Structure of proline dehydrogenase:
Amino acid sequence: MLGPVILAASRSDRMRRLISAAPVTKQVVDRFIPGETVDEVLPIVQELTGNGLELTMDVVGEDITTPEQAAAARDAYLELIGRLKPLELGTRAEMSVKLSMFGQALEGGHELALANVRPVVEAAAGIGTTVTLDAEDHTTLDSMFAIHEELRKDVPQTGCVIQAYLFRTEEDARRLAAAGSRVRLVKGAYKEPAEVAYQQKHEIDKAYVRILRTLMEGEGYPMIGSHDPRLISIAQELARTAGRKLDEYEFQMLYGIRGDEHLRLAAEGHRMRVYTAYGTDWYGYFMRRLAEKPANLRFFARSMISRG
């Protein structure tokens, strides 16, 4: 299985240097990351929303080693919010954040991450939109959920992400499927040990369906993060069975993957949100996109060969 190998490479400085230096890399990265600056990505925001789609925006970057870098990440999101404000898109353009960017892994990281993310969440609410806390590796989740709970006291629409491949997630889903909650369910894209996570695709898929049923039957707002046609079909059936209207859940997919499906779901009346990342520190995000789907890796490999 290449997925675990690629995920290991995403942590390798040597691989980072090798791939970053390859002439073809930028062309391929552009498929998944449409820009490095706010100025570059805002036209994409307007294009996607003009086509009936919604967005969740991610300023990429996870290798934070100083409090100053964490503060810079906070400021990058505040700049984005300031630039979104005059577009008056409301929840059609929300944000996703990784708490590692806000200093979670540093000394005193839980308090530091909370202090840095709070003004972002409050500023987003001030322009009529919201923030979702992305899930990272399993060692960070207790802190993430605690920060999520704290933020929801003042900004209850703050969302969070759960990962189907982790054994703990079914219990987390039951706790989170409450009125007012917003929960994105994904399969999971970090290399996790067998002690805490399913390793086989069929096991992950079955867990995904069980967890999604819990969310659909709950009182919160489920966000289906998947490109898998079978899981999308199952999600629609679970929503019908639960008596949910089309605006009582949404689909989320990555920018650059299955764009035709984005438009098809939106045309059918579904809320379809495109996870759109931008920024200069793209390496870790890019490598996880390759690991998630063999077709992404084949696309990259073909591009490397054709340009070699």
Observations:
- Residues 67 and 108 are 10 Å apart (CA to CA).
- The radius of gyration is 18 Å.
- Residues 67-84 form the longest helix (18 residues).
